[in-house]
Amino acid sequence: MNTIPPGFSQTEPTLNRDAWMDTITVLEALTARNCNPDVEPVRRDTVPPASKPRRKVPGDDVTVRRLSHAVVTVVERVTDRSILLNWCDPTSCHYSDQLWTKRSARRSGHCALTGESIARGDAVYAPYTRVSNPPANEQAMILASSVKD
């Protein structure tokens, strides 16, 4: 069974020659395909993290954004103050239909969907958390203005 995703080869040279980053690259490609088969993997050694594009998935009305190692897919709006999304990060966590709720940003940061800057007080969506069992992506935020109605 060939576990190397299409577009990758075992003999293909990489720019950084770092075995750990090569492993992460393959895991990201496999995870991206498992999360959404229409998303093409992005090679970490050819695309700098800051320039990873926001992409529309063909045939779907969902938005996908790769931020750091994560593939973020907005699934649906549940209410006017909550959304469901898929968060796939081969280095830390995978959440399907994770509930995010609207609130004011408690700190500055960057939007996990668009990469835009977030200022304290901006309207954002953040993972719904329970104090006893917070998700691994509890610090992530998405600008409310970047989520379609």
TrEMBL record:
Taxonomically, the superkingdom here is Bacteria
What's the protein name?
A: Uncharacterized protein DUF3331
List every stretch annotated Disordered.
Answer: 38-59
